[in-house]
Amino acid sequence: MKETCKAIIIKRISYSDTSVIISCFTKASGLKSFIYKGGKKKNAATLLPLRIVEINYYQHNEDALASINSINSTAALSNLYQHPVKTSILFFMNEFLGQLLGKIQYAEPHLFEEIEQELIWLNESEEITNYPVFWMIQWIEKLGLKPSASSGKFFDIESARFSDHKPDGVLYHFGDEMETLAFLFRQDRLTILSYPLKKNDRKKLLNVLMDYCRFHIPEFKTFKSVEILQTVFE
Questions:
Q1: Residue 69 three-state SS
Q2: Taking the domains of the chain in order of start, what are their residue ranges?
Q3: What is the pTM of this model?
């Protein structure tokens, strides 16, 4: 059966000298894999992480790997792949989504549209310094893991609570930055993106949010792009 779908590329794996297997988050059916025969030669520039594409494909049955006939970008997003800082953020987002979207093999059109709009916004915006922190806060809230509405210099990762008192457990963070993080969790997009974070504070907050996700999201792992992102923002 020949079909067409809108998709966001998550991962590309080499299959042969000329062909690739592409894992995509599709608007119609969630995560879906395709084989693209000759893709390395035909359309390599389109097969970049988080490209928004339209795919024409053939699938013999639901259990078979779908075979791509053609694939085309539906949004230019040239800045994302040419701007060094935006490219680093893009790879960070891609690794993050790769872990979270792996089990969504059903239609989530609203989530697809949200990710699509974020990519378009990031391509056009210049206010990106705090974007990785915003991105993680946003996803923690989407997943229903937002810490309790409290404040303090201690952040208890296990109980998801900020406090002025040292937690009983060992998995916590301490410092003035935790009061900043508690504040940011209560703010909207514009406030988070424009908040005057110092370089070291931004770095620490990103590490704290990664620790929080590792504890609360099953099988969540730290990814390589975090270190690269930290270096880019030095």
A1: strand
A2: 1-95+116-123, 127-232
A3: 0.90
Query: Over pLDDT 90: what percentage of the chain?
Result: 75
Does the structure show a pLDDT above 90 at 105? no
Secondary-structure class of domain 1-95+116-123 per CATH: mainly beta
| Cα end-to-end span (Å), the chain | 51
Between helices 131-142 and 84-100, what is the axis angle to 10°? 20
Distances (CA, A) of 110 to 26, 36, 130: 11, 27, 24
Dist. CA 202–CA 95, nearest whole Å: 19
Q: What is the average pLDDT value for the chain, to the nearest integer? A: 92
Exposure class string for 194-219: b at 16+ Cβ within 10 A, else e: ebebeeebbbbbbebbbbbbeebeee
Contact 53, 6 (CB under 8 A): yes
CA atoms of 86 and 104, how far apart (whole Å): 26
Q: Do 122 and 128 form a contact (C-beta atoms < 8 A)?
A: yes
Mean pLDDT in residue range 204-221: 94
The helix/strand count (H/E) of the chain reads as: 9, 8
